[in-house]
Specification:
- The complex is a heterodimer of chains A (114) and B (118).
- Chain A is mainly beta and 114 residues long.
- Helix content of chain A is 0%, strand content 54%.
- Chain A contains no helices and twelve strands.
- In chain A, the strands form three sheets. In chain A, strands 2, 5, 6, 10, 11 and 12 form a six-stranded mixed beta sheet that branches. A four-stranded antiparallel beta sheet of chain A has the order 3-9-8-7, with no helix packed on it.
- In chain A, strand 5 and strand 6 form a beta hairpin.
- Chain B has no helices and ten strands.
- In chain B, strand 6 and strand 7 form a beta hairpin.
- Classes of the chains: A mainly beta (114), B mainly beta (118).
- Chains A and B meet through strand 5, strand 6 and strand 11 of A and strand 4, strand 5, strand 8 and strand 9 of B.
């Protein structure tokens, strides 16, 4: 079975600073996908960034980047120049290349402080 | 285009009553998922539909839960004889599923239905 662990239930960061959210996962698969989703108070989950396991290069989307360490099964999210609108729950998710199920962590509640 | 639409946004029901939650996926999305999100918990997989294939019901917590997807589009999640532990946010998501080159497309979520069982 696949498990996704987010060990930081809550975090806060000053506006304009950088914050890193951690995620580890457990799998015996070699090919898979990893995602970070953001859930603001509106409840709608929004895809932040995506990483394919066969790619060694870390994915980047504007202020969001990941540190993907395949051997360590770690997939952390770095948010640079934090903005008030980044306040949300952040979920890490895993999906096997051959499967259809997304496995989610329990989330990290991030608060950006003005 | 329009995103995933869920209705109602909020539902309060009495213990023992049946409820139906509706999901309109993004047009053209062949894959549809239902998840349950309880306070302080991650997303719990409930059921998955892919095209005309038999659904993956492995996440349904009990036989009180069922779901249908008519015409490969709209889906309804039904909870019979609701219990207080059913209170949660029920999220629907759709995707293009397995695309070209074997690449899975990401999920697009609706705003969820907050179910409260009193």
């Amino acid at each position: 079975a696949q498990t996704v662990t987010q060990s930081q239930p809550e975090m806060s960061v000053q506006e304009a600073e950088t914050v890193t959210l951690s995620c580890t996962y457990d799998t015996s698969e070699n090919n898979y996908y990893l995602f970070w989703y953001k859930q603001p108070p509106s409840r709608q989950m929004i895809l932040v960034i995506r990483q394919e396991a066969y790619k060694q290069q870390n994915a980047t989307e504007n202020r969001f980047s990941v540190n993907f360490q395949k051997a360590a099964k770690s997939f952390s999210l770095k948010i640079s120049d934090s903005q008030l609108g980044d306040t949300a729950m952040y979920f890490c998710a895993f999906m096997k290349n051959t499967g259809n199920q997304f496995y989610f962590g329990t989330g990290t509640s991030l608060t950006v402080i003005p | 285009g329009a995103g995933v639409s869920q209705s109602p946004s909020n539902k309060v029901t009495e213990k023992g009553k049946d409820v139906e939650l509706r999901c309109d996926p993004i047009s053209g999305h062949t894959a549809l998922y239902w998840y349950r999100q309880s306070l302080g918990q991650g997303l719990e997989f409930l059921i998955y539909f892919q095209g005309n294939s038999a659904p993956d019901k492995s996440g349904l917590p009990s036989d009180r839960f069922s779901a249908e997807r008519t015409g490969g589009s709209v889906s309804t999640l039904t909870i019979q004889r609701t219990q207080q532990e059913d209170s949660a946010v029920y999220l629907c998501a759709s995707s293009l599923g397995l695309g070209t080159g074997g690449r899975h497309s990401p999920l697009h979520f609706g705003n969820g239905t907050r179910l409260t069982v009193t």
